[in-house]
């Protein structure tokens, strides 16, 4: 997916002069939002600044006063919920503690203890030159994450929201039983830490949303969508409304509280239609000031970014 998203970004820049003519939200009246303030979310904590999905990254999001901490989860061999983006280990961002290269291996074949034996902070992600390594950083279980956040909240008197994604193999091979087990365990932990009212479960796999609504309808759900390269191209040049209508219909069918598309989907009409259907709009992953400003004028309810510092500067300090 990363290669696809990078291609979208290059495409978006290449034809931005045209897209400004057809989807510039600043030329229209901002629709009424369903929430009072815009929801600023640090993607994978703060992937652009610190090692993704680790406590240093979440601390960075907290530093820049993000409203919501966004994170990914995978179920391990011993049925623990670990905070990690891929369903396989990632040699680009993790290594053995002695500095040697790790091999790509399914998290479903590894225990939480085996995963926490890795160093996932020493290697800088080459796609994020501003990212500062934190050597020796370990992966977190979801329980450990909540313990750390709640400890910080008690000390700082601040309160955060959580946007938690369920991750499965990209090839769509996850059986119904795995989706159900992962989602149910996630909900059990959310209930255990009494954060139901400030948690969202998001996924590209719509089965997660269905299980979540059945298990605990009080937890908000968010439907994630990414376009194909061709769809992204059409939307970049101001076309592709049919694709927008399709994902809006699917999200509504799954009773999603939030629709969370790749930012190219978002136009004033898209936001208004989502609001008319009772869904908030929180696009991802928005990493330029220009796009942040465009989306704010569209009336989005939130923005997910790898750069909480930029979100704080552009969105919060602007409003």
TrEMBL record:
PROSITE patterns on file: GP_PDE
Keywords of the record: Signal
Domain of life: Bacteria
Leader sequence residues: 1-28
Coiled coil regions, renumbered to chain: none
A Pfam family assignment: GDPD
Segments forming domain GP-PDE: 38-315
CDD domains named among the record's database cross-references: GDPD_SpGDE_like
SUPFAM superfamilies, per the entry: PLC-like phosphodiesterases
Gene3D superfamilies given in the database record: Phosphatidylinositol (PI) phosphodiesterase
Record-linked PANTHER family: GLYCEROPHOSPHODIESTER PHOSPHODIESTERASE, GLYCEROPHOSPHORYL DIESTER PHOSPHODIESTERASE
Name under which the protein is recorded: Glycerophosphodiester phosphodiesterase
Organism: Leptospira levettii
Lineage: Bacteria, Pseudomonadati, Spirochaetota, Spirochaetia, Leptospirales
């Amino acid at each position: 997916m990363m290669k696809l998203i990078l291609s979208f970004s290059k495409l978006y820049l290449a034809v931005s002069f045209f897209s400004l003519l057809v989807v510039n939200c600043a030329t229209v009246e901002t629709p009424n939002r369903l929430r009072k303030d815009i929801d600023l979310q640090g993607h994978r904590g703060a992937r652009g600044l610190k090692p993704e999905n680790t406590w240093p990254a979440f601390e960075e999001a907290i530093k820049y006063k993000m409203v919501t901490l966004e994170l990914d989860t995978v179920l391990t061999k011993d049925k623990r919920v670990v905070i990690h983006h891929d369903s396989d280990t990632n040699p680009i961002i993790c290594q053995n503690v002695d500095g040697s290269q790790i091999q790509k291996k399914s998290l479903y074949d590894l225990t939480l203890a085996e995963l926490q034996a890795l160093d996932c902070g020493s290697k800088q992600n080459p796609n994020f030159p501003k990212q500062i390594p934190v050597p020796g950083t370990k992966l977190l279980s979801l329980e450990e994450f909540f313990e750390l956040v709640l400890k910080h909240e008690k000390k700082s008197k601040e309160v955060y929201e959580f946007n938690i994604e369920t991750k499965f193999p990209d090839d769509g091979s996850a059986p119904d039983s795995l989706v159900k087990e992962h989602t149910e365990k996630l909900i059990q932990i959310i209930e255990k830490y009494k954060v139901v009212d400030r948690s969202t479960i998001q996924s590209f796999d719509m089965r997660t949303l269905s299980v979540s609504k059945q298990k605990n309808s009080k937890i908000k759900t968010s439907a994630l969508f990414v376009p194909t390269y061709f769809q992204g191209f059409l939307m970049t040049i101001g076309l592709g409304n049919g694709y927008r209508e399709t994902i809006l219909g699917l999200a509504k069918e799954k009773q999603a509280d939030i629709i969370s598309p790749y930012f190219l989907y978002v136009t004033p009409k898209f936001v208004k239609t989502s609001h008319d259907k009772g869904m908030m709009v929180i696009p991802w992953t928005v990493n330029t000031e220009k796009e942040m400003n465009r989306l704010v004028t569209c009336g989005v309810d939130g923005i997910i970014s790898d750069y909480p510092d930029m979100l704080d500067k552009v969105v919060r300090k602007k409003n």
